[in-house]
Each structure stands twice: as structure tokens, then as C-alpha cells.
Amino acid sequence: MGSKASTQGEKTGEAEKTELEPSPIPRLDNAIVVSQISKDNDIRFGNGRFTYLNPIGKGGFGIVTMVVDTDTSYPYAMKMERCAASYKNEVEAYEKLMGVQGVAKFYSTFREQGFTFLQLELVGISLLQFVRAKGRKLRRTEAFKLAPQMIDILEQIHERGLILDFGFTSTYLDSDVEHLEATTRAPRGTVLYMSANQHLSIYNSRRDDLESLIYTLMDICKVSLPWRNLQAPTNRCGHHAYFDMKQGGMDGSKICDVPEFKKALIMCRALEYDEKPNYEKFKRVFKLNSARAATVSVKPDLPNRVYRCNLIREEEEILLKFDVNKEVTETSEIAELIEMNNSPDADD
């Protein structure tokens, strides 16, 4: 495990870099020849070291771009967002998750022109992009084949003392490595997939991660989420409406009629706040028999393909701040966009 990241005062106009103990350069099969990059592309990060190729993700956290290291010709994912103190927690979480299969490897972080950058492993397409590439929702057998893999990843994250929280992670252990006591806070996260208890302002724990995963699996295989058409909650009454609908009765019968999802939800509801889930038991709920599993493929046709996402004009202008041939003055529109994206109420 590398040493924790530290930062120094930001210097105007030049990148201030914070690197963990050196990690081996990734041996990727899809290394890019720098001479093949368009000469029209003049967007650079890290004092010119990283050349921007295209955007591959965005959200409340900021923008993720595909870049190439001009020193090594290797591609990476580069996450950029307006500088905020929270990025230090994110770096520490990546340190704890080093080696967890399914979590991008972290290499370094630096600050430049008022933005924080995280250099990450380029891992390919996301689950959402995978579903979109198929041009349809997944079949239940496909979702059930993915479920044990996703539960495995959750278990590894939990073993490192972390839970998923508002798009990334937070610890559920105190300084004595004991489970934190149940506490309350304002609900936050992606409303569609939040656990029922989160709508009651109960701080999430391992059981809530599993419940959110089940809702995600239901959604990607076209099992209707009854609360999808509810108005976004803005007060306690709104959140209680979501809570009641996500409870779906003691047996979950009002949520869906898929036995596997109903059983998994009952198992989540039976867990105490600080109880460790029986991950193997959850995986068995979705396990296909060997003959059936052999006929189901959930691998992308192009596993190394990275999909491009579309940016709005304000987001494109943010990238142009780093064009070596242009000087772009930040507008109030850009500032408002960034403030909105970093607000506590922003979705994942």
C-alpha cells in the first residue's frame, strides 16, 4: 500500500502533483502510439504530460476523459473535478482498494488550474455502457450470471472497511476497527437505487449496499422499479413515500414477482445494521446451474473498447481551459455548473 497522498499550496498556472509510492507501469495490450494522435488535439493535462483523447464519462463528480501519457504511450482514465477537500478521502479510498478486482487502479493525483485530477487505470466499459452496447436490457439469466461477480466485488470493498456512499466510498469502521453505531443524516445518493432505510435518514451500512445492488440488477434486466415515476423527494414526506414503496410488504411481493429478487430483498431486511452479510448465501440465490450458465455470455464483444460520451457546451469549455493554444476565461455558467455538480444533492 502506498503512503497517503499529501498536498501543498496550489501554484497558479502550473500543475501541482501528488504521487503515491511509484506503481509499476501497466503492461497494457492497447498502448497508443503517440504519433497516431491527431495534431489538432492540443488539450493537455499535467503540464503537458497527458494528451486528451476523448470524454468517456461524466456526472455529479465531474468529467472522466481518456488520455495518453506522452512519456510512455500508455492510455489512462483521467478524472477531473473542481478542487475540493473531499478528493483526499477519495485518494485514501483508492489506496485501500488497491488490488480489488473490478476497481480501477490508482496511480497519481495532481491539481492544475483550479481542478483536481486523478490518474486511473483504463478498465474498459461500464455496466451501463455494456447494457447500451447490447441495445436492450439484459435477460434475467444474464443479470443472474453477473450478480455473483458484483457481490464478490462488494464483499472485497467491505473487507477493506468501506461501503459505497454517494457515488464513492466511506468507512463503516471506527478507529478501533469496530462497526460505527447507527446514526442519522439527510438522505443522499441516487434516489432510484437508494435502500429503503436511507430514506429514513439512517446512515447506510453493508446491508444497504446489497439492497442497492439488487435494485440495480432489477433495473438492468427490465424488472420495473415501482417508484421510478414518483416525484423526486424534497422533504420527509417525499422520502417516506419512497420508503413505503421500497418496503413492498414483508415478502417484497409489491416490488416484483421475480423469486430471486424477492428472496434477496428479504435477506437484506433481515440483517441488523452492523451485521456482516453472508455473501455466499446471497450469491447462491442467483446461481445458475452449470448447463444453463454455459449458454449465457455476459462478456462485451469488444472488451477493450472505451465508449465516448457526449458533453454539453459548458463541459467542452472546461476542457478548452487546458488547450495549449487557447486562453479561455471561465464564465459564470461554468462556475455554476461546477458548483451544481459538487452540491450534496447532486445525483451520482
From TrEMBL:
For this UniProt record, the keywords arranged alphabetically read as follows: ATP-binding, Nucleotide-binding
User: In the record, what terms sit under GO molecular function?
Assistant: ATP binding; protein serine/threonine kinase activity
Cite the Pfam families for this sequence.
Pkinase
Extract the ranges annotated as region (Disordered). 1-22
Q: Superkingdom, according to UniProt?
A: Eukaryota
Q: Where is the composition biased (Polar residues)?
A: 1-10
Instruction: Give GO BP annotations, semicolon-separated.
Output: endocytosis; positive regulation of canonical Wnt signaling pathway; positive regulation of proteasomal ubiquitin-dependent protein catabolic process; signal transduction
What's a single GO CC term here? nucleus
Chain residues that bind ATP: 79
| Comp. bias intervals (Basic and acidic residues) | 11-20
Q: Which Gene3D superfamilies match?
A: Transferase(Phosphotransferase) domain 1
Domain annotation Protein kinase: ranges = 50-348
SUPFAM superfamilies referenced in this protein's UniProt entry, alphabetically: Protein kinase-like (PK-like) (SSF56112)
- For this entry, the protein name equals Protein CBG07290
> To which species is this protein native?
Caenorhabditis briggsae
Q: What is the lineage of its organism?
A: Eukaryota, Metazoa, Ecdysozoa, Nematoda, Chromadorea
